[in-house]
Amino acid sequence: MKFRSLVLSVALVLIGCLSMVLADSGIPQRSDIDIEDRWNLADIYPTLEAWEKDYAAVESGLQEFKSYRGTLKKSGANIHNCLKLDDEVSIKIDNIYVYAGLKKDEDTRISENQGLMDRAAALLTKYSEATAFIVPELQTIPEKKIYKFIAKTPGLEIYRHFFDNLIRQRSHTLSSQEDEILAMAGDLFRASRKIHEAITVADMVFPMVEDEDGNEIRLTRGRYSLMLLSQNPDVRRRAFLARTEAFDKVKNTNAATFDANLKKDRFLARVRKYNSTLEMALETDNVPIEVFDNLLGSAYNNVDALNRYMEMRRNVLGLEEIHLYDTSVPIVEDVDLKIPYEEAVETLLKAFEPMGEEYVEKAREGFNLRWIDVYETEGKSTGAYS
Fold it and tell me: What pTM value is reported for the model?
């Protein structure tokens, strides 16, 4: 599953937008796309019934975690068995969640798929509630005793990194009851993202714009990216203003949604005793704030190089002023970035070669088995997909 997501993300970031055909004024429906160019979700679940079977199994199986509550400090074997169960359940939940998410992303206007995703999110919340005791309970075990358990318990060594992080984050761990309350609020914490997607993907309609050939076409996210590559500054400007116009109509709702998301992060940071949301975001991966500040400082201290480049770009393009929509168009002559999908696939496979033959073959398998949804269609989620 993780490799499939990697292939999906890397490949479509590079080629999704490049495979759009700009000449058509209408936005393709999913039924207009050849099945060979649509992803095959059957590799995750062959049928919805199979998804339902796993869903029911996980939902009922969550009760098994109760048998480990209050027992983890007694033995390394109890810890190992509990973590192994957590791994097994997590894999199924990943499959359930990814399948529902991809179905929803195919067309965010379809209520049945939205319902599938809502159920997957609800199951994730139930799982978080059922396992909320694990980390707080493990945190009550002295560090020396934890590593003694690791040394003497077969199979527990593979979790050493997990325990290293656990000990490092000890000061930010809540009680089992407090963690369970936060887990119960999982659906609320995801609400702002869900609302934002509903507004900007399912409901938002971009205006018609004139392309390089004088054709009136419906602007889409994929077409917007392509129009920014136009050598005609008027085409770039029209695309930019049209996109801005669409977002401007929902700016207050978007701002309120963003504000709600910021307050959610601030709440979680305060509850878990972080000094800031930045510290909370970085500490999970053990990245010191100083690293972030140094990177930001380096960017600020060297902004003159960026300014010189933008001035050079303005001169090469023959512009009086340079705008954001002028920063993507190539400034080298005879550059055609409209790469056919098949050619992009082969380029990616060649780029993967330093990773080893096994990696390349897995990537090739992903392409051949239709793990990628190639084209932009109406209602489809944006981002790396197309």
Answer: 0.72
